[in-house]
Amino acid sequence: MKIAIPEKKKLVYEMSIPIRWGDMDAMNHLNNTTYFRYMETCRIDWIRSTGASMDPQGEGVVIINAFCNFYRQLEYPGDVLLKMYASDPGSSSFETWVTMERADSPGLLNAAGGATTVWVDYKAQKSRPLPDWLRALVT
Prior knowledge:
Shape: elongated
Helix content: 10-25%
Largest sheet: 6 strands, antiparallel
CATH superfamily: Hotdog Thioesterase
């Protein structure tokens, strides 16, 4: 199964996360909230890899919505390969998309999701135009 990622998407980051025993639920598969944590970790690692800081007195990203589609269960033990894409930059926002597959089963999609990401002034709690350096990364 595939997620509807826009054709004009751009792969911006890849990472691997180990599945932890404690991430499992009573049904012996990855708890659904953990998928959102994995996507969050991927977004934060990506933004930090750009050199941007997460200073609460400065500017940075916030998520205004998020979703996840679950296709196949993820179970311990194993590693999850996450691929993050960006698309549709606007004046202050862009879309992020994350696919998740087991590292030992490349190409077999287990889950995929995304989020609308907005650049904000944290202190003023208002959106700001995407900085040129960020627009270049997501375009």
